[in-house]
Design a protein that fits this description.
- The protein is 76% helix and 2% strand.
- By secondary structure, the chain is mainly α.
- The protein has a single domain, classed as Four Helix Bundle (Hemerythrin (Met), subunit A) (Up-down Bundle), CATH 1.20.120.
- The longest helix has 34 residues.
- The N and C termini lie far apart (74 Å).
Length: 262
């Protein structure tokens, strides 16, 4: 009873603007896409528990599509909100943190015993820390670069490997458990590293482009349609390595400058 009285008194002490914001509700359209991404991540977990690993991998990639759309829809429709940002982070934790780690454990790492679930936890914890750091750096970070491997790309590394091996090569996860273990730990540590990865956010899709650019986009769709699993996994493998290549090149150039100045 005392808690209810304190809550009522606190509400009375709020300004009219604060009361109005509480009654405003949430924007439906962008949060529908976020909910779809969350559902896809949850669906991936369920399919992994039932042994349908190809469907689980596909669901994680579908979650990536919806996750990429919700923010853009919010900006285009001017429906950004603090609620939407927090909801998106929680959805990402399920779809790109919990789902990949649990599914990859069921597919391959379970047979490694304690080392298996430790690798899965390293990935899951890395995703949580990556999202927390991203949220705290929104106003100060360079938008052209991500610090640490983005969690959707890390999820694509694991789910893509599972998709390729399970669907294309029919290789059981248990036969390549140590390779999966290494990739899982690599993805988890890459998310919390200080390595920079290109964000693609400086690409201006509204400006005019040459005709050949449209042909390249069409060619990209054709290549993906030939073998979705291999092409998508290959792209994210290259992306994951690209950050380290850029970092090494930057370190080498700095060393050369130091030698030239000395």
């Amino acid at each position: 009873m005392e808690e209810q009285e304190e809550h009522s008194q606190a509400y009375l002490n709020m300004s009219l603007k604060e009361r109005a914001s509480r009654r405003r509700g949430i924007y439906l359209l962008p949060n529908l896409f976020t909910t779809a991404a969350l559902f896809a991540g949850f669906f991936a977990i369920v399919q992994g528990m039932n042994g349908h690993f190809e469907m689980a991998a596909e669901a994680i990639f579908i979650a990536m599509i919806f996750d990429g759309l919700d923010g853009r829809v919010a900006r285009l429709t001017h429906t950004q909100s603090a609620f939407g940002a927090e909801y998106d982070s929680l959805s990402d934790m399920v779809s790109f943190g919990a789902a990949p780690s649990l599914v990859i454990y069921e597919w391959s790492l379970r047979g490694l015993g304690k080392l298996g679930w430790i690798a899965a936890f390293i990935y899951c914890a890395g995703a949580a820390l990556r999202l927390a750091r991203f949220n705290t750096q929104l106003g100060v970070a360079d938008k052209r670069w991500f610090t640490g491997l983005p969690s959707p790309a890390a999820a694509a590394l694991l789910s893509g490997m599972m998709w390729v091996m399970d669907a294309s090569y029919q290789v059981p996860g248990g036969k390549i458990a140590w390779l999966v273990w290494a990739l899982t730990v690599f993805a988890g540590l890459s998310m919390v590293s200080n390595v920079r990865f290109y964000s693609f956010k400086d690409l201006n899709l509204r400006r005019s482009v040459p005709f050949w650019a449209v042909l390249l986009i069409l060619l990209g769709f054709v290549v993906v349609s030939i073998d979705q699993a291999r092409v998508l996994w290959g792209f994210f493998l290259i992306y994951a390595v690209s950050g380290y290549v850029v970092s090494i090149k930057g370190w080498m150039s700095r060393q050369q400058q130091k030698q030239a100045n000395s």
